[in-house]
Amino acid sequence: MTTPTPPADKGPADKAPRTERGRRTLRKLLDAAAIEFGERGFHEASITGITRRAGTALGSFYTYFNSKDEIFRALVDDLSGKVREAARSARQQDLPALETERASLTGFLRFASEHKEIYRIIDECEFVDPDSFRLHYRNTARRIHERLAEGIRKGELREDLGEAHAWAIMGMNVFLGLRYAVWSEDAGAEEVAELANSILREGIAKR
Amino acid sequence: MTTPTPPADKGPADKAPRTERGRRTLRKLLDAAAIEFGERGFHEASITGITRRAGTALGSFYTYFNSKDEIFRALVDDLSGKVREAARSARQQDLPALETERASLTGFLRFASEHKEIYRIIDECEFVDPDSFRLHYRNTARRIHERLAEGIRKGELREDLGEAHAWAIMGMNVFLGLRYAVWSEDAGAEEVAELANSILREGIAKR
Questions:
Q1: Which regions are flagged for Basic and acidic residues bias (chains A, B) (predicted)?
Q2: Any CB–CB contact under 8 A between A116 and chain B?
């Protein structure tokens, strides 16, 4: 381990920023960590690499985190929240259920094309911190499941939809993002979201 | 590196087994590698761990592979082929297009529940050998795309289906496998495949 030893008397509870300046520093550290872990991977990434990218002193790092593992976990939680917000902010209130799915996927695809590093970070999380990996996908599926339940309540969606349908929709969205937002952008977010939405509207059979 | 140095004069072209006994040994090494990499991950896995599990001499390993990287790549190629075969052997010839998708997914889910290590190995491949990772998913999507094209030719599927629909279907299948074949088996392969197939048959809107 090349990681410097942090002060032993600080637990996570001490570490939430109390000032606006502290919040900005924490934000800089997390944004720098996304680049560092995204470009170098967990094992090659270093705390000094993160603080150099963030333009902060090493001491600032230990004000908020005890270790590379700890900022990685915080980053996955942060990115998970950003994915949620990218989908949520892309849709207006009271859209029909199918339009809600379309807007959520469009928002996610746009976010992924601007933050291509999220795939590598979330995927590496399966190995670095399996609990956070599962939590990210369980939470994402739960939100889709809640949207489906709302669509059923409004009488717009099939009444037999459940958790497995939410996982199916999440899988569609994740792989379309990998192919069309991260690997190559040969189709735009709206176009890809429409192709996926057409499956949810009518299936794939000829009418 | 703790890896013993292999004979330098042997290239991959020399290494295909020439006898039935050689094919059995190679099979034992790949099956052992699946367990070793699946349980320990690429970095912790060792060549001696593989040969011990396979019950072969260390020399047998170097008859077929030059390094841990090389057997990992061969294993991903082997597993990719097994996924293809699991889907193919589960479906009869000349099924209707939608039944072909259902049977393929059922076959994949059964395979994944018996070989839970494939997710970890394919996912870790993103970091160990990104080209093989992309090739596995590109090939899988291409096969789904070919099945969709065949369904269009037979007049059973929407004529506008293309590569993105194949990626959407692959994503559904991969995440349903992760959730219902690897993490927990609280729903059977047929049941999960039917839930996914209902999306492809009719979408999720109320009729």
A1: 11-20
A2: no
Q: pLDDT, tens digit, for every residue of A129-138?
A: 999 999 999 9
Q: Which of B44, B204, B206 to mutate to test the interface with A (most CBs of A within 10 A)?
A: B204
Residues 6+ apart with CB under 8 A from B73: B129, B132
What is the fold of A16-65?
Arc Repressor Mutant, subunit A (1.10.10)
Closest approach of B89 to chain A, Cα-based (Å): 23
Contacts of A65 (CB under 8 A, 6+ apart): A6, A15, A29, A71, A74
User: pLDDT by residue (tens digit) across A6-22?
Assistant: 444 444 546 788 899 99
Map tokens 């001696």 to a residue.
B48
Q: What is the mean pLDDT of residues A115-120?
A: 94
CATH of domain A71-202: 1.10.357.10
Whether ipTM exceeds 0.85: yes
Q: What is the pLDDT of residue A1?
A: 37
Contact assessment for residue B151 and residue B125, using Cβ atoms and an 8 Å cutoff: no
Among 3.40.50.720, 3.20.20.80, 1.10.10.60, 3.60.40.10, name the CATH number for the domain at B15-66.
1.10.10.60
Contact B171 A172 (CB under 8 A): yes
